[in-house]
Design brief:
The protein is of the alpha+beta class. It is built from two helices and 17 strands. It is found in: Bacterial flagellum basal body.
């Protein structure tokens, strides 16, 4: 009986953790470039002395959904939609290089190019991009950034930098607690994207299926309730068995 209680208890714990993942997805259903987090469970045999009869249900981080989100035309020159497999390099809070597909960029009062979360966008040399005062700005399909300086004519448009856009295999990316992706093997840096890397004036929407996530949340809630019932009935059966043993004794 204790084996059934143990499996049900660990299963309920995994169901709660999976609900947390789905809740996170629902919260980011409208976040540009967000990739749906995936959750799974697996059986793990408890190690140690004695007969190996205890099985733990473990919550497993299964990575993220690779599907490209829908494209939204905004007309804003600082909104970027990256080609499949491409990621924009940004500076994480700890100063390291990280990657995102959230292309809603903006400028700080001192001219630094940042993401919606405030992470500095990096140039092709790995340095944060700063943009001088301008009256027009353009981001090319290859990531080049050009401006017409303030007070100048169209003939003065000049390139001032290039965004660091890398091509990264999905299996070499892992999501950090800050929502940014990291290279799982820093000893092998990602290569710069070639050819058409981005589209300006567009954003990639989140790839979270809100309706599907709500259905999944309901299924997980029912699964959790069923596991709690198993624990309750197991406890009642154990009490009944103890009562019978006392009567026979």
């Amino acid at each position: 009986m204790d084996k059934a209680l143990y499996v049900a208890m660990t299963g309920a714990r995994a169901s709660l953790q999976a609900q947390g993942t789905v809740s996170h997805n629902l919260a980011n259903a409208d976040t540009p470039g967000f990739k749906e987090a995936l959750a799974n469970t697996e059986a793990f045999r408890i190690q140690g002395p004695g007969h190996p009869s205890r099985i733990d249900a473990l919550h497993v981080d299964a990575g993220f959904n690779r599907r490209v989100g829908a494209q939204q035309v905004t007309g804003n020159a600082l909104d970027l939609s990256l080609q499949p497999g491409n990621w924009l390099a940004v500076q994480a809070g700890d100063g390291s290089e990280a990657y995102t597909r959230a292309g809603a960029l903006s400028l700080t009062p001192n001219g630094q190019l940042v993401t919606a979360e405030g992470n500095a966008v990096l140039d092709d040399n790995g340095n944060p991009l700063a943009i001088p005062p301008y009256q027009a700005i353009e981001i090319g399909n290859d990531g080049t950034l050009s401006i017409i300086p303030q007070g100048e004519g169209p003939q003065t448009m000049a390139m001032i930098g290039r965004l660091r856009v890398v091509n990264a295999a999905d299996d070499r990316l892992t999501r950090g607690l800050d929502g940014l992706m990291r290279n799982t093997d820093p000893q092998q840096p990602f290569t710069a994207a070639t050819g058409k890397a981005v589209d300006s004036g567009m954003l990639e929407a989140s790839n979270v299926d809100a309706a599907g996530a709500l259905v999944q949340m309901i299924q997980l809630q029912r699964q959790f309730e069923m596991q709690v019932k198993v624990i309750k009935h197991g406890d009642e059966n154990a009490r009944s068995a103890n009562s019978l043993l006392r009567l026979n004794g």
